[in-house]
Amino acid sequence: MGEALQALLGNINPYLLQIIVNIGIGIVLALGLNVITGLTGQLSLGHAAFMSVGAFSSALLTIHTGLPFSVNLLLTGIITAGVGVVIGYPILRLTGDYLAICTLGFAEIVKVIFLNLDITNKALGLSVPPPHTTIPMPIMVWIVVILTIIVVSFIHNSRFGRALKAICGDEIAAEAMGINVARYKVQSFAIGTFLAGVGGGLYAHFISYINPSDFGFLKSIDILSMVVLGGLGSIPGSVIGATILSAAPEFLRFMASYRMLVYGGLLVFMMIFRPNGLMGGINFTEVVLRAIGRKPHMKELMKHEKPEQ
Amino acid sequence: MNFKKIAALLLSGALAMSVTAGCKKKEEAKSAADTIKIGFLGALTGDVAMFGKPTLEGMKMAAEEVNAAGGVLGKKIEIVEADDRGDKQEGASVTQKLISRDNVVAIVGDPTTGITKVAAPIAQKAGVVLLSAGATGPGVVENGDFIYRDTLLDSVAIPACIDFFAKDMGYKKVAIITSDNNDYSVGLSQTFRDAAKGKGIEIVADEKVKDGDKDFSAQITNIKAKKPDVIFFSGYYTEGALIMKEARKQGLKANMFGGDGLFSPKLIELGGDAVEGTMSALGFSPEQASPVTAKFVEAFKKKFNGAEPGLFDAQGYDAIMLLADAMKRANSIDPKVFKGTLAQTKKFEGVSGTISMQANREPIKSPLALLVVKGGKFTLKAKVPVKMD
């Protein structure tokens, strides 16, 4: 099967494929952060650190064990989520700026630990061998992307997801409604870091050489920009945000040294004209349902003057 | 006109510009059918642009010279440049772009070891020659038989330096300082420790610092107690300058010695009198030049208003010349063919020294330039010969 898939991909320009993989990894990371920051409203500036935990665990699993890549990714996610829970338990009691600073501090600690561990080859970084799988990397990445979108959509629409939205809206009110705020926060952190770990694992095998200094503060900000650009709490938003920001540096390449200027300008314009992000405040499911005629359009509703819901 | 209208106008302007820019590129590509395309992979913007920019300058100069002399096998060399901002993910994309979009036969880059390690598997898989004009760390050419570099390796330079120190300078005791969040520094220190074994040099202290540190008093206090003849610092010039300032403040007389990471005018700017006597070992110096190098230095000065060429200029220049030489000897511009002749390069007279490729495809270069800060300027202390087979 692996060869057939590989042959299929052979028709696509490898450069385009590379960008598509970059986008896929960006989406997984952005959706993970979206659960923490968008849905639950807990600002985390340490997402890249969890990504690095995932990248190094996944690389080490490939180097030292013969586990198939899918199992490897699952284990990686669980390890990262474990780290996320251990970290999240004490620091999620904090809110706002304090939490942000705490996650920032944690990210630095992770970097220093990896810089000093022998198993991660200290500052020299790890060369990652090809993953134990016959499925080509781009397809693997996009299988994970689709699974992630499905799972995250379920979470958004579940009782659990609504509880998270309630915490995002007002923590005290949520607690008054009988939501165990501390528990739900840690759980959302676990899900977000799980996805960060999986994204890191994919990144490590895709890029084939990782170094602790790749996962610095700027990487966290990159992921946060994807989520904010797309719209906090919106799944299609995160997908679009990750797509635009992952692809932009390549599509703007013809501008040579001005391209990062345009990249920055794009973010500034976005924040001025759509402060809630591209998809912020738009209910995607409703838009789709209306478009395919399963739900009346807003104009029709207004014409009949009998709003539903 | 309101704000939104102005914004719309600006955006449409940018769009129009991008469209025309795109067209121009296509025309260029059409007219350049009879050229040999060589890609440049490196940072032109960002933190490590100081390595990428001179490499590209050197490459362009070499291409101009080759083209003026009739090109290679009747074809002109065309350099396709691509900026990777020193970012690994972008380095991977750029490598892929150069190979599949621009159809280059060879890529020169990246000047840093990290991105070269990311680019190497991609080039190897695609069957395109990758020649790094700057990667000195381990684990580069191991990626496959399409991967080369033209730099003086730390594993070659450091033993030669140690020999020189032990024999000519009479040093016995060395204190090592490593910047342990810097992969270059960690690698270089390890090379030094390995090379010092059995050479009659004793490592009396092994201290650790970090890139970005400002206070080195604790480390210097420890080192001072051990009375070393020389301090080996494997990191970059910023920390190097601050370490020497602290050392002089505490009255430590020993001088500092390091790799090309110390070689920057910034070292002297930051360190002032304290860095007098600091030594840096690197693969190139415009002084005491061989005839080939002298010619290059002169041409460079003419082109860049009297500026002296640096290590990366010379290595970028040599990279193109090495590739052109290999293509000529192979009588082919197919990377599968000329990679073989590139591997057989022996005693190639480059502007950054004589280059030979070993059986394991690692280059050996001679001589090594040992520079010392004297009177607020880097001057040549000695050209240390490296043993070649």
Chain-averaged pLDDT of chain B? 86
- Strand tally of chain B: 15
Q: Mind summarizing the main beta sheet of chain A?
A: 2 strands, antiparallel
Largest sheet of chain B: 7 strands, mixed
Helical content of chain A (DSSP H or I, runs of 4+): over 70%
**What Rg of chain A is obtained from the alpha carbons, in whole angstroms?**
20 Å
- Our estimate of the beta-strand percent of chain B is 15-25%
Helical stretch count of chain A? 14
Query: What is the strand arrangement across the widest sheet of chain A?
Result: 1-2
Bulk shape of chain A: globular
Calculate Rg of chain B over CA atoms: 23 Å
Q: Estimate the global geometry of chain B from the Cα principal axes.
A: globular
Low-confidence stretches of chain B: 15-32
* Largest interface, counted by CB within 8 Å of the partner chain's CB: A-B, 37 and 38 residues
Read across the widest sheet of chain B, the strand sequence of neighbours is 7-6-8-9-10-14-15
Intertermini distance of chain B: 75 Å
Measured by DSSP, the beta-strand proportion of chain A falls in: under 5%
What quaternary form is this?
Answer: heterodimer
Low-confidence parts of chain A:
none
Mean pLDDT of chain A: 88
**What is the succession of H and E elements of chain B?**
HEHEHEHEEHEHEHEHEHEHHHEEEEE
Provide an overview of this structure:
The complex is a heterodimer of chains A (309) and B (389). By secondary structure, chain A is mainly alpha-helical. Chain A is built from 14 helices and 2 strands. Chain A has helices spanning 2-9, 14-39, 47-64, 69-91, 96-116, 137-157, 159-169, 171-176, 181-207, 217-230, 235-251, 259-273, 284-291, 298-304, and strands at residues 126-127, 209-210. The longest helix of chain A is centred in the middle third of the chain and has 27 residues, at 181-207. The relative contact order of chain A is 0.17. The model of chain A has no long low-confidence stretch (mean pLDDT 88). With 389 residues, chain B is α/β, with parallel strands linked by helices. Chain B has helices at residues 3-31, 49-68, 88-100, 113-126, 154-169, 183-196, 217-226, 237-249, 265-271, 291-303, 311-330, 335-343, and strands at 35-42, 76-83, 106-109, 129-132, 147-149, 173-179, 202-209, 230-233, 255-258, 279-282, 348-350, 353-357, 363-366, 368-374, 377-384. Chain B has a 7-stranded mixed β-sheet with strand order 7-6-8-9-10-14-15, sandwiched between helices. Chain B starts with a helix and ends in a 5-residue tail after the last strand. The interface between A and B is large, with 37 and 38 residues.
